[in-house]
Every structure is written in C-alpha cells, then in structure tokens.
Amino acid sequence: MMSEPLVSVIMPVYNAAAWLRRSVESVLTQSHRKLELVAVDDGSRDESLTILETFAGRDDRVRIQRQPSNGGVASARNAGLAAAQGDYVAFLDADDWWHPAKLERQLSSMRNTGALVSYAEYWRVAEDGRVLSRVTPPARVNWRDMLASNFIGNLTGMYARSLGDLPFRRIGHEDYVFWLEQVRRAGVAVRVESDEPLAWYLVRDRSLSANKWRAAGWQWKIYREVENLGLLRSSLCMLRYARHAMVKRLRSSPRD
After folding, report:
1. Which domain holds residue 39?
2. Which pLDDT tens digit goes with each residue over 50-61?
3. Residue 251 confidence (pLDDT)
4. CA angle 90, 104, 194 (to 5 degrees)
5. Can you list the pairs that 240-247 forms with residues at least 24 positions away whose Cβ atoms lie under 8 Å?
6. Which of 12, 29, 63, 67 is most deeply packed, by most CB within 10 A?
7. Is residue 39 in a domain?
C-alpha cells in the first residue's frame, strides 16, 4: 500500500496572538495526520512566539522558524518553503482556519484527478463571526483563466512538490503571482470535490477606494512586468479583471 504523503503547511505569523490558537488547532486536528506545520514567526512583538512554542512542546509536528526581523509575508513564506520537507505544500495565514477534513479531501481530489495544483471553496467571515459570503471558484482553471482573476484563495491552495517550488515575490498581489505561475507550470488546477467550503477567511477590515486603485495598479504591473504581456493584451486582461472584480464585490457584499 502506498504510504500517506507528508503535507507541509506554511504559516507566516506576525502579531497574531488573538487568532493564532484557532488557526494552529485547525491544522493539528486535520483528519490527515501526516503533516508538518512550519510556523514562521516574522518578528512578532506580542505573545505569538510563546503560543507557537507551547504548541511545539505538545506536538512535534510543529516546527518554528524565526525571522531576525519583520520582513513581510513573502519573506516569511519563502523561509517556510526553504524549511518544508513535505510531498505537498499548503498555506494558511495565522488568522484563518480550516475544516477538519480539508487536507484529506484535497489529497483525495488530487489523486483522483491527477492535478498538481488544487484549491477549494471557502467562507468569508467577519471578526464577530458573521458569515459575509461563500466564495465558489470555477471547477477548473488554467493560466489564461487566471489572468482574469485570482481564483485560488491562498488559504485553500495546495500543490504537489513534484511541480517544484517558487519564491513569493515582494510585490503587490504576491499570492496571485505565485499561483498564476504554478498554474502555468501545472497546465490546469482543479477545485476540491467537496459539498461544503473547506476554509474560513477572516475579513479584518474594509477595503478602501484608494486600496482598490492601488490593487488595480498592481494588477497592471503584473501583466506588463511579470507576465510580459503586450499593451493591447494587458488592456484586454484589465477589462476582464475589472469585470470579475465587480462581480466578486457584488457576491461578497455583507449580508444582514
């Protein structure tokens, strides 16, 4: 019988004491037990490191990496990738959390489809626990699809290590740039076969108009400088991006 694969879960941590226990526990209570949690403390000034050390003392699957200073999420994830030993890699930020069967269902889906990259539905929730929306990405996406929008929520994404690792770039939309390239390399990514969302994304603040303009600027830079698309194609991609962003906002509007 084929042995169960080891899944490396990369978790950047920075001043996350208010949410960290829930996130870590959602990893350690996964039905797929063969995993390692590579928690990267990115220079936290609160009790985050103490919380991680307590978990590591109780469960040897928790491995702590310490950054010498706060270098940002891209740097922290890269440190986690450098230390990861798994056959698969998944990501979870320190304020989000998973369904207990997330990894088990995801691995099963990837085995059944032969996919090297996968993702799942997830809930957007407010800090008071209210469900804001259910995010349901397409069943399958390729690189061209991904140019229109980042359909892979980073808290649900997972890839087979055989695909090869990529560094996170210190650029706006670093998650998007990472998954855009991984999907290009994989050819296609598939949504996990599940009747329910497999993760919860904590919405900690409201997006401001200025931030939306800044995000659009990042998107344009990705088309032109990362993907090296021509002016016309970049413009067409921006139109698709704007349309998807508008639809996403309508679907993600808070519910009373």
Report:
1. 7-208
2. 999 999 999 999
3. 58
4. 95
5. 240/147, 240/148, 240/149, 241/147, 241/148, 241/149, 241/216, 242/216, 243/148, 244/148, 244/149, 245/149, 245/212
6. 12
7. yes
Q: Which of 186, 19, 18, 1 is nearest to 89 (CA)?
A: 186
SS3 content of the chain, % helix, strand, coil (to 5): 40, 20, 40
| 26 contacts: CB under 8 Å, gap ≥ 6 | 92, 97, 98, 99, 100
Tally the domains of the chain.
1
Query: For the segment 5-59, what is each residue's pLDDT rounded down to a tens digit?
Result: 999 999 999 999 999 999 999 999 999 999 999 999 999 999 999 999 999 999 9
Cα gap 130→117, rounded to integer Å: 30
Half-sphere exposure of 81 (CA within 13 A, CB side): 19
Residues 6+ apart with CB under 8 A from 238: 216, 219, 220, 223
Residue 146 falls inside a structural domain: yes
Model pTM? Answer: 0.88
CATH of the domain at 172: 3.90.550.10
Q: Does residue 25 belong to any structural domain of this protein?
A: yes
Q: Give which of 130, 84, 127, 89 is closest to 106, Cα–Cα.
A: 89
